[in-house]
Here is the input.
Amino acid sequence: MQNPQAHWEQVYQTKQPDAVSWFQEHAARSLELIRSVGPSLNASLIDVGGGASTLVDDLLGMGFHHVTVLDLSASALQLARQRLGTAGGGVIWIAGDICNAPLPECSYDIWHDRAVFHFLTDPAQRAAYVQQVIRSVKPGGHVIVATFAPDGPEQCSGLPVARYAPDQLHGEFGPAFELLQHVSEAHTTPWGSVQHFVYCHCLKPH
Here is the structure.
């Protein structure tokens, strides 16, 4: 099989952003959880696996000044940049693998990931991801991660995924992370099928 980066480049080069299963016109559940933090508009946020998602549009519309979007696919990021135009001029765009991307230390107040973590089926990948969180999120920062729920799909975009109950997802990060809340989502794909997600909102230890 082709490497993951080549896979996602092909996806975003051959499909419209609203023709993929994970498309949301607005990332309502993510925005709800971010708002629940009560962040300052000067808070620093990173959207991991943001791709061509409209979350960045809505964050900028809410007035946030320090937004980073990371994705394995440079093509996905280019779609978002083109959509935003000059409005996205202040966004930091990072094309890279979240497991080894050179993220700045203790920089983010909010870490958001909708549907990257569940692609990490290798325990070593998950451990590397958690180390990135520990290194780059500020002490006391918020970590919002969504994956497929136990009754969610077993694959996405032709790739295998891991599915999690809230306690299992929290467990991947360890007991030092305080679980503030978990919520579910029944996501309807563009073609009408329903996928079940779980979101965990944790606090990184001081």
Q: What stands out?
A: The chain has six helices and nine strands. The longest strand covers residues 137-148. The radius of gyration is 16 Å. The chain has one domain: 39-203.
